[in-house]
């Protein structure tokens, strides 16, 4: 074997070793941290959207207008749609932030995401896919240890024992 081939093979082994080390380091990221980041970031997206629909405790005329003209959801009146969206975009993010009923909240917001993607803005699938990834993670694996869900489940388990 010539020197160039040996050097290339040694470099390949070093690169493989470094990639394996990096993978091991990434494997050390705790799920609880990943879940917390997913919960907080997706909650922020929906909370901000909800804030655009309200002034104080009232749904804005702009929100009604958007539901009448741009969103045009089938089978739902613009008045009901605007109220339901404003309510959901405030309630479920708060529940995600505190980690209470996280899986249910994630599924509710995932449902909203699907409606938005399919019926309102189908061309925005990369953004909606990112939202769906966060929500699916929480729905599938739960909220992690930094949540009220975790505290409550521990309390229920000790009472059951």
Task: Write a structural description.
- This protein is mainly α.
- It has one domain (31-160).
- Helix content is 79%, strand content 2%.
- A two-stranded antiparallel ribbon has the order 1-2.
- A hairpin with a 2-residue loop joins strand 1 and strand 2 (58-59).
- Helix 4 packs antiparallel against helix 5 and helix 5 (102-120) runs antiparallel to helix 6 (125-141).
- The longest helix has 25 residues, at 3-27.
- The protein is flat and about 75 Å long.
How would you summarize what this structure contains?
This protein is an all-alpha fold.
> For the largest beta sheet, what order do the strands appear in spatially?
1-2
Number of helices: 7
User: How many whole angstroms does the radius of gyration measure?
Assistant: 23 Å
Query: What's the main sheet like?
Result: 2 strands, antiparallel
Please give the share of residues in helix.
Answer: over 70%
**Into how many domains do the coordinates divide?**
1
Apparent shape: flat
**Residues in β-strands, percent:** under 5%
> Please, what is the average pLDDT?
95
The chain-level structural class is mainly alpha
Number of strands: 2
* Low-pLDDT windows of residues: none
CA-to-CA gap between the ends?
Answer: 67 Å
Q: N-to-C SSE series? A: HHEEHHHHH
Keywords: Cell membrane, Membrane, Transmembrane, Transmembrane helix
Family: Belongs to the DoxX family.
Protein name: Putative oxidoreductase
Subcellular location: Cell membrane
Characteristics:
7 helices, two-stranded antiparallel ribbon, 161 residues, mainly alpha
């Amino acid at each position: 074997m010539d020197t160039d081939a040996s050097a290339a093979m040694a470099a390949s082994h070093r690169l493989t070793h470094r990639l394996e080390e990096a993978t091991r380091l990434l494997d050390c990221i705790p799920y609880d941290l990943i879940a917390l980041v997913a919960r907080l970031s997706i909650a922020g997206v929906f909370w901000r959207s909800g804030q655009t629909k309200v002034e104080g405790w009232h749904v804005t005329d702009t929100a009604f207008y958007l539901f009448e003209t741009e969103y045009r959801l089938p089978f739902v009146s613009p008045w009901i749609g605007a109220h339901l969206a404003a309510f959901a975009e405030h309630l479920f993010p708060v529940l995600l932030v505190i980690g209470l009923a996280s899986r249910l909240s994630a599924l509710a917001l995932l449902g909203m995401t699907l409606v938005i993607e399919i019926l309102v803005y189908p061309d925005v699938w990369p953004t909606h896919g990112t939202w769906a990834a966060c929500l699916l993670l929480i729905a599938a694996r739960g909220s992690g240890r930094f949540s009220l869900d975790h505290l409550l489940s521990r309390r229920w388990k000790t009472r059951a024992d």
